[in-house]
Amino acid sequence: MKFNAPWICLGILLTWMSACNVDKKKTIPEEAIEFTTTDQSRMFFNNVRTLDYDQEEDDQTDRVFYRIEERNTDTLPPVLNLCIVNDPFHYRAYIMLEPNAYFSQPYHFEVVWKDSLLNTSGSISFQEGNIIEQYLFITKLYNKLLAQCQFYIKEENMEIPLLNTAQEREAFRKTMIDYYRLINVL
């Protein structure tokens, strides 16, 4: 049986394209807590995805901090940015929440979510904690974001919109997809 070079190239191309195409609407089970990376996931992230990120290296810990370039850096409306922390020497990566200066208490706040399609609502509380607490909080927000929920910060008797613009929502979503791919959850 003779193999034809164009068919082999087509097969390789289709395999590569299917490997790069993840389900971007898949919700993440909260119990899927994982921080381990693989050589393949780090190679993909470093060679393909880091082009969209600002990078900051910490020489003392050998960790690299990645913040998506399209994030909102304003200080007036409440903004929740994310930072992917890659620890390549220990084969681990973490996700960190970075509230902007608007938050008077950036280590303790409550996010109210509203699902207008299902006519439901609830809240997710953030209490500064370890990497697991941050992962769980951010994953809950990500799943609600995929469900097209609207978010608000609860301040006294007011609800201030959060992740309100398409840019903020997309920056959050892309960062989480990249992070979940890096730790092989997606």
Automatic annotation (TrEMBL):
This is Lipoprotein. It comes from the Bacteria. The lineage of its organism: Bacteria, Pseudomonadati, Bacteroidota, Cytophagia, Cytophagales.
